Structure formats: structure tokens, C-alpha cells
Amino acid sequence: MSDTEMQPRAEPLAGSLATVGLSKSFGGVRAVDDATVTFLPGKINAVIGPNGSGKTTYFNCVTGMIKPDSGSVSYRGNDITGRPPHRIAQAGIGRSFQLCRIFPRMTVLENMLVSVRSGTVLGKLVSARQRTDIDRARELLTRVGIDHLEHAEARDLSYGQQKLLELAGVLMADPETIMLDEPAGGVNPALIDRIGGLVRTLNSEGKTFLIVEHNMDMIMSLSDHIVVFDRGSPIAAGAPEVVQDDPRVLEAYLGV
Amino acid sequence: MRNDSSRTVVASSAAGWPRARVAKLTGLLALVVFVVAFPRMAADPFILSVGVIIMSYAVLATSWNFVGGFTGYISLGHASYSGLGGYATVLLILHTGVNPWLAMFLGGVIVALLAIPIGIASLRVRGASFVIVSIALVLILLLVFQSWGSFTGGSNGLRVPRPFGDEVLRPEQHERFFYLHAVLLAIAVLCWWLIDRSRFGTGLKAIREDEDKAQSLGVPTFAYKLVVFVISAFFTALGGGMYALWFGFLDPIFQFSILTGSYMVLMSLLGGIRNVFGPILGAVIVGYAMEFFKAQYGDTQIHLVALGVLLGIVVLFMPDGILPALRGLVIRFRPQATSIREVTQEELTRDATGSREESATDRGTGTKEEVSG
């Protein structure tokens, strides 16, 4: 793993995900405003900020769900600004959604088989139930602890199990970078610990994480690098201890 | 761990799978035997002609279901493609004198090519907007084909040359077209089934469930939708062309009719869009009901009222269609082999490898625990 500096830098690091001057407005609201951020490759990065500070819109701009008005997104030295979401996914950036999104009327196993990393046209026509894919899906389901539910329809799972399924589904394509939008939202404390543990293990295997989260305990204990957003712009970045004591961050959160 | 996961699979599937497969194959065989024997069993040419109409609807509904069933995009305007297929076939025969069956195939190819720009334009919008765009296309085509009399025959219609000679009598014509439609239906069903089980099909079904989510997992959603849309238009056009050759006459008002498209939707929804045989079952029920009402009540519009009522019943009581509803009944009356077992907090937090053995044992007894995930 690279021993990158913990200091925020304006110019992108080699091999990292970074944005320069990213902006997106909805009507008169500047949801994301001139966001220049570099995330540390191989680390657990967190994006925090008060409600409405543009975190999710920022996420959506990076993953191509929303086209930014200006600015650029680069990943591993390539400009990926404005590319359609499936191209960004195929480039190795997986993501989860704020309110967990799974395919409700498909079984757990079918949910796992949706993800596409690459492949030929001919490869699309073969049966979806390839031995290797199914083995991999089962391995990941076992890993998140819902392998016994593989034949259940996804809509019959509890919310926590759906969150685990979504994470496992994202892992199917073996993305190098994983973006999680509020992984701890709406789940019980025991499961939060479990998800945190999974993130830590996956990170030790080399996955880069970008996590949007409101649960401060989770963020402070989990992340290596935190970027704080307020009113669409990053106002501070650094290690948890540093960010925690930053007066600008306290002001944004507490309004002092 | 490996051993354990395979045990789970066996536990939940061994009870049902082979029997379900035997039942499916038996059903399929019975269906094939019935189709082959139908012309012999038909009491008179009228019944046989009803059989041809139902077969034609089955082809059209199955073709519609390539888009509707896989992607969930409800096109009310598929009459565009059946109508274009019919006109393309007949105009090719009249103007170039090619073999009628070659003309039908070429008609399908032409319509498939036309469906590419139409798909690119219309598949950008979802939900109600897509429905409206699909209807708009039928209305445009209706006006064009009515007005462009010199080429299409206009409102006077177009007489279709018979593919079989005059020595082939009406009942014999019906029988041949019944089998021809059956072959076309079999090809469409096979194609649908192949897509259903493929990676492509999994991507399409993911689009039906949640298009944005599918795209975030790397599925090139637009390309997938477009490909299946073109396949759907191709089969619909073949169905339209074959029907034109049988019926012998084309009139824009019937070819480009909102009703024809609505029938395809109703039949598919009635039978169940998630099942390859759903649209066929729907076609049999709706086709039979329609001919029954027409025969009983003649020129009145009562058959349309009956269809409206039928659609209401389906939407209210069987939103997934008849086949899934039947399947639900079968499952309800079968001894419960497995049920979804909720996982307790303790199990979730426990170390993954440590908890395996325990959870495997109580999985067998099927105990339902407190919901807490």
C-alpha cells in the first residue's frame, strides 16, 4: 500500500480519484460549488457535512448520475467527467445509494449477477448462471452473512439485509474504489459495527473507500482522511483528529 | 464454509426443482400436442380461423413482451410495428414481386432498421412519457398511411396477393397459416427464453427493477434497451406481415390502431409479463373472449366493454398476471420447504466463521426468529 501524505492537496495524486472545481446548480441553488478534492488511494476516505451540504450531489456528479455544470473528475489519471454511470462503474468505481437500492423482484443471487465489469457481445448471450460467477456471488454473500438467503426475493429481506446485499452486489464487479452513501443510515448498531468491519477488511485488501456518513462515531473510528463539506464546498480536509478540532468544521456543524 | 453453502442450496432447492422442471416440460409437451392437433379438432373453418387469430395475437403479445416484460417499458404503440410489417410485406410483393415469405422477412428487417432511430428517440424517456411517445407514433403512421394514397392505397385499403394458389381452399389456408403462426411463435418464444436466461436478460430485468441502479453496476442500460426494442419490433413486424398475408387486406385504420397495441399489453399483463408463456395464455383468453363477444353480440362494442372490465380485474386482483397468481396458489398449498429466516443481531455481529455451524443447524429446523436486521 502506498504511504501517501495525509495532507489535502490541490493537484491530483497519481492513481487517485479527484475533482477540480466541480460545480452543480439546481435552479438558483449551488448544490456543489467549486469542489476541489483529492481522495487518498488505498485509504478509507470520508465525506461529512451538515444536511444539505451537497455530499450526495457531489457523489452523483462523480459517479456520472448527474452531469456537473463545470469542473472535472479524474480517476487514475483519466478524465472521467460527464461519462455515463456504467462507464464509470466499469472503470472500477462501485457505489451504493443513500436509501439502499436493490432489485426487489429478483432473488438475492440474481441481484448479485447483474453487475458488469467488461465483456464481449458474445459473452452477454451466455447463460447468466456461469459457475464462476455463482461461486463468486456465494462467496461474497457468505462474506456479508446472507448466503442462506440466496433464493429469497430481495424485497423480502429486512432493511439491514438489503444493505448487506447492496454492498455484496457492488463488490461483484471487484471495483478498486467503493463509494458508500450513508452505509450506516437506518441500520441497528450491531450491523453498523459489522459493516464497519467489512469496510476495514476490504480496505486492508487494497480497496479505496469514499464514505458519506452522518454517524460520527463510525467515521472517526474508521476513516483515514476526512473531507468536510459545507454549502457545496469542501471547507476542511485531513486526518480525523485534525478535522475534529478545526474551528471551521465546528462552525459549520454548530453554527457558532 | 464451501461445504456449508452448498448444503444451503440443496436444502432450499432439492425439494422443488426437479419436480418443477418435470411439470414444466410436461406442460410444454401438452401445449405442443394441442397446437399440432388443433386444426384436426376444430369443428369448422370458423373455429379454425379463430385459432389463427389467437395464434397471431400470441405472436404479437410475445413480441411486445420483449420490451414490456424485460425492461418494464410499456409501449401502447406496438401496432406501429405490426402495421409497418404488414405494409412492408405487401408493398414489397406488389412493387418488386418477390416471394411473399421473403417479403415478410425483409419487411421485418426494414421495420427493425426503422426501430433503431425510433428507439433512440423514444427510449430516452421513461414511464408515462414513453407510453405517450409510443401512442403518438401510431397516430402519425395512421395519418401518413391514410393520406399517402398513391403508395399505400390510403383509406381504401390494399388488397394482399395470396401466397398460396387459388387451388388451396379457405379451410386449408387457415390450417397452413395456423401452423405458420405456430412456428413463428415458437421461434419468438425460444428467443425470449434464451434472452431470459442470459447475462443480457439479467441486465434487462435489472433495468425493469431499477434502471439507475443497474447502470451504477455497469449495465449499459441504453444499449440494452435499444437492442431488445429492435428485437421486439422485428418479431412484431413479422407477426404483422404474416397476419396480412393470411387476412388478405390492409386498412390503415385497423393496422395502425391504438386498440391493437392495447390488446398486446392487456394479453401480456393478463398472463404475466415475467413468464415466457404469460402473453400466450393472455392471448388465448382475450382472443377467445373477443371472438365470443363479437359472435354473440355482433357489431356492438360490447367486446370492448368486456375487455375494459377484464383489464380492471387484472390490475386489481392479479397485478402480476394469471401465471404468477397460479404459482402463488401452488406454493401456498405445498408444504413449506423453506422460509426466509431472519437473522438476529447476535448472529450478524458474531464472527462470520464461528457462527457458521450453529446457524446451519437451526436453518434445518426452520425456526423463525425475531426480526431485527
UniProtKB/TrEMBL annotation, chain A:
Keywords, ordered alphabetically: ATP-binding, Nucleotide-binding, Transport
Q: Which domain of life is it from?
A: Bacteria
Please list the GO terms describing molecular function.
Answer: ATP binding; ATP hydrolysis activity
Q: Name one Pfam family in it.
A: ABC_tran
Recorded hits in CDD domains, A to Z, give:
ABC_Mj1267_LivG_branched (cd03219)
Q: Does the keyword Nucleotide-binding apply?
A: yes
Q: Which InterPro entries match?
A: ABC_AA/LPS_Transport, ABC_transporter-like_ATP-bd, ABC_transporter-like_CS, BCA_ABC_TP_C, P-loop_NTPase
Q: Give the signal peptide as a residue range, or say none if absent.
A: none
Instruction: Name a single GO cellular component.
Output: plasma membrane
Residues annotated as domain ABC transporter: 17-256
Q: What is this protein called?
A: Branched-chain amino acid transport system ATP-binding protein
Q: Species lineage, top-down?
A: Bacteria, Bacillati, Actinomycetota, Actinomycetes, Pseudonocardiales
TrEMBL record, chain B:
- What stretches pass through the bilayer? 21-40, 46-67, 79-95, 101-123, 130-149, 177-195, 273-290, 302-326
Spell out the subcellular localization from the entry: Cell membrane
> What are the coiled-coil residue ranges?
none
Q: What InterPro entries does the record tag this protein with?
A: ABC_transp_permease, LivM-like
Q: What Gene Ontology terms describe what this protein does at the molecular function level?
A: branched-chain amino acid transmembrane transporter activity
Q: Where is this region: Disordered?
A: 344-373
* Entry membrane topology: Multi-pass membrane protein
Record bears the keyword Repeat: no
UniProt keyword list: Cell membrane, Membrane, Transmembrane, Transmembrane helix
Q: Cell membrane: is it a keyword of this entry?
A: yes
Q: Name one GO cellular component term.
A: plasma membrane
The identity of this protein, by name, is Amino acid/amide ABC transporter membrane protein 2 (HAAT family)
